[in-house]
Amino acid sequence: MTSMSSAEPTRRDFLYIATGAVGAVGAVAVAVPLINQMNPDAATIAAGAPIEVDLAPVADGQILKVFWRGKPIFVRNRTEKEIKEAQDVNWQSLPDPAPDSARVKKGHEKWLIVFGNCTHLGCIPLGHQGAYGGWFCPCHGSQFDTAGRIRQGPAPSNLPIPAYAFQSDTKIRIG
After folding, report:
1. Which class for 13: exposed (0-12), middle (13-18), buried (19 or more C-beta within 10 A)?
2. Using CA atoms, how far apart are residues 52 and 60, in angstroms rounded to an integer?
3. CA separation for the pair 151, 98 (Å, rounded)
4. Which of these, 22, 23, 107, 133, is most buried using a 10 Å CB contact count?
5. Three-class SS state of 89
6. Residue 51's beta-bridge partner residues?
7. What is Dmax (Cα atoms) for the chain?
8. CA distance from start to end of the chain
């Protein structure tokens, strides 16, 4: 007569272990999608994330339009003439006084980065237009200079400056 010792695994022990393993895999298979559905949508994450802009392909005098958080941002590579004109303005007499040096980063004066919405009613102004060569809002006639300062029209303030930093001489991070 053969007797089995209780230390040897039986078929019943195998079935218990197999059933437990299948149950654990099933629980994980249910838990992963349940937890993942609580994460924010990729579009939501992207909407608030900072963006990096490569400045290398932007020619002198060119305006690049990018979008951050659903809003247009103008990145302008100002020419030496545009910089000199913006610096020579008697800024204390402007409707929203601001020197050119307060609108750009020190050492990177040729790059002007501003939100691309008119401060009057939020229209998108046209670049290289108007009497000051900056931006012109065709909806109500606001005119901005090459530093994004309001010069004429109903807009109450200058084009706002977003939070940005230079990563290198040819790359900025907005946001």
Report:
1. exposed
2. 20
3. 11
4. 133
5. coil
6. 174
7. 112
8. 81
Per-residue pLDDT of the chain (175 residues; tens, 9 = 90+): 555 556 788 888 899 999 999 999 999 999 999 888 888 777 776 677 899 999 999 999 999 999 998 899 999 999 999 999 999 999 999 999 999 999 999 999 999 999 999 999 999 999 999 999 999 999 899 999 999 999 999 999 999 999 999 999 999 999 8
- Helix ranges (DSSP H) in 37-131: 42-48, 80-88
pTM of the model: 0.74
Which sequence positions are flagged as catalytic? 140
In this structure, the dihedral spanned by the alpha carbons of residues 120, 123, 129 and 133, taken in order and rounded to 10 degrees, is: 50
Question: In this predicted structure, what is the pLDDT of residue 2?
Answer: 54
Q: Token digits for 97?
A: 């006084």
- Amino acid, res. 158: N
128: left (phi over 0), alpha (psi -120 to 50) or beta: left
The two structure tokens encoding residue 100: 């050119």
- Rounded Cα distance, 97 and 95, in Å: 6
For 34-138, where are the E strands, in sequence order? Answer: 51-54, 63-68, 71-77, 111-115, 126-127, 135-136
Q: Would you state the pLDDT for residue 39? A: 83
